[in-house]
Amino acid sequence: MRSVLIHGNLMGPDSMLILGIETSCDETGVALFDTDRGLLAHALFSQIDMHADYGGVVPELASRDHVRKLLPLCDQVIAEAGCTRKDIDGIAYTAGPGLVGALMVGGSVAHALGFALGVPVLGVHHMEGHLLAPMLEDNPPAFPFVALLVSGGHTQLVRVDGIGEYEMLGESVDDAAGEAFDKTAKMLGLDYPGGPRVAALAEKGVPDRYRFPRPMTDRPGLDFSFSGLKTYTLNTVNAAIDAGEFSEQVKADIALAFEAAVVDTLTIKCRRALEQTGCRRLVIAGGVSANKRLRAGLEKMARKLQAHVFYARPEFCTDNGAMIAYAGAQRMLAGQQDGERIVAVPRWPMNTLPPINEARANGLVD
């Protein structure tokens, strides 16, 4: 099969209309991606309000809500795209990593629809979806590039030479950056989800009122560790409480110090990764990639290296169906599909994915 990259999409004579389904955690996402026309429609239902009462995601509640919302969202997206179910050529769903019950909901619906429509179905790697989300933009990155995948469950640096051609450069040895944001939010008495609320509070902080450590930046290597930073934040909070000085301004100052430490740590490691690989393109993806301070820090660093930073629009930084539809389309164009078995893999290293060998032959690489 011959295909070329035009505006970030693999295109060719064998065009496909792919329905993408995302149910890895607490977002129900659906999208329709056409390999000739691009993204046609997408919809997302967030369970944030439901889980906020518990201070975090309750897996059983998440699964039940996916059951309620998924098919109506599929029908909504198909109608908004001006299509019918019979127009669908394939269905992609998130197979992992994620909450196993939530993954099974998406996989079950995908396989049931695929069987009813007589179309192929493919389980997609959630983090590959995030990594490829910037390809949906008007100015997508060319291969090779370095990717920073940063979310609630993952903090990874990956060299990407093509779809499925991944070399792990570094990852967190304990807490992910997004997880550290959520735990810091709880320390500060902020609601779920914590990351955006910490960032919003940090806007009111006084710079340099506190100075937090930049973990693992004083040694070589590209791995991350945020558990120590989390402990340092907790100790700072407790000291302020004991001193009777835990005011709203102090909370904002702590939020800013924490956010600055995470951003500086990620930026330092990204600079090292670009220098180590010789790449001059950096992709940031995942929920934390929507953080404005992180984007500004990475862009400033990249300019000094004469490099370029790419990221998805904010609505495609968090979990969504569009990234799954796109990633699934690329692999389906290469002939991949599930058998009859639903795939649900709660833990799934991304560097075990098979490569799409067409990438270099068809204009995806400089």
TrEMBL record:
- Cell compartment(s), UniProt: Cytoplasm
Residues annotated as domain Gcp-like: 39-326
Provide the alphabetized UniProt keywords. Answer: Acyltransferase, Cytoplasm, Iron, Metal-binding, Transferase, tRNA processing
Cofactor comment text: Binds 1 Fe(2+) ion per subunit.
GO CC terms in record: cytoplasm
Catalysed reactions, as listed in the record:
L-threonylcarbamoyladenylate + adenosine(37) in tRNA = N(6)-L-threonylcarbamoyladenosine(37) in tRNA + AMP + H(+)
GO BP annotation list: tRNA threonylcarbamoyladenosine modification
Which cofactors, by name? Fe(2+)
User: Could you state a single Gene Ontology molecular function term?
Assistant: iron ion binding
Query: Pfam families this protein is in?
Result: TsaD
Name the EC number(s). 2.3.1.234
- Per UniProt, where does substrate bind? 149-153, 182, 195, 291
Q: What is its main location?
A: cytoplasm
Q: Where on this chain does Fe cation bind?
A: 126, 130, 319
Q: Briefly state the protein's biological role.
A: Required for the formation of a threonylcarbamoyl group on adenosine at position 37 (t(6)A37) in tRNAs that read codons beginning with adenine. Is involved in the transfer of the threonylcarbamoyl moiety of threonylcarbamoyl-AMP (TC-AMP) to the N6 group of A37, together with TsaE and TsaB. TsaD likely plays a direct catalytic role in this reaction.
In the record, the note on similarity to other proteins reads: Belongs to the KAE1 / TsaD family.
Q: What protein am I looking at?
A: tRNA N6-adenosine threonylcarbamoyltransferase
| Protein species of origin | Marinobacter pelagius
Instruction: Identify the coding gene.
Output: tsaD
